[in-house]
Amino acid sequence: MKTVILGSVLVASLLALVVILFRKRLGLSVFTSIGIHLVMAAAGIYVVNYSGWITGMYIPLNPATIGTVTVLGLPGVGLLLGLKISLFA
């Protein structure tokens, strides 16, 4: 019963989000902007991993790390590096 309620809330909120996006005439420009941010986040993590600036540090390319860098921008890469150093060193 709980999963049915949660699933219906998820579907309703997704439909509301789609209606809001297309009602405001944002359309596909929002998706292209998000796509550009995702690509730039992955490129930033890739540059840090393979540039040799910080030896022995590797940030995995997974949805959590790319999402963090997408939301926070390049300071998100610094945050991930700081977490990696403080938690695993």
What is the count of DSSP helices, taking H or I runs of 4+ residues?
A: 4
Structural class: mainly alpha
Distance between the termini: 45 Å
Number of separate domains: 1
- Average pLDDT, rounded to a whole number, is 84
Q: Oligomeric status of the shown chains?
A: single chain
Report low-confidence residues grouped into runs of 5 or more: none
What fraction strand? Answer: under 5%
Biggest pleated sheet: none
Pattern of helices and strands: HHHH
Give the number of DSSP strands. Answer: 0
Give the % helix. Answer: over 70%
Judging from the principal axes of the Cα atoms, what is the shape? flat
Radius of gyration: 18 Å
Keywords: Membrane, Transmembrane, Transmembrane helix
Organism: Paenibacillus silvae
Protein name: Pro-sigmaK processing inhibitor BofA
InterPro entries: BofA
Please provide a written account of the structure.
It comes from Paenibacillus silvae. Keywords: Membrane, Transmembrane, Transmembrane helix. This is Pro-sigmaK processing inhibitor BofA. InterPro entries: BofA. The protein is built from 4 helices and no strands. Helix 2 (29-51) crosses helix 3 and helix 3 packs across helix 4 (74-88). It has one domain. It is an all-alpha fold and 89 residues long.
Please describe the structure with a list of short key phrases separated by commas or semicolons:
89 residues; mainly alpha
Topology, element by element:
Elements (H helix, E strand, L loop, with lengths): L1 H22 L5 H23 L11 H10 L1 H15 L1
Helix pairs in contact: 2-3, 3-4
Organism: Paenibacillus silvae
Keywords: Membrane, Transmembrane, Transmembrane helix
Protein name: Pro-sigmaK processing inhibitor BofA
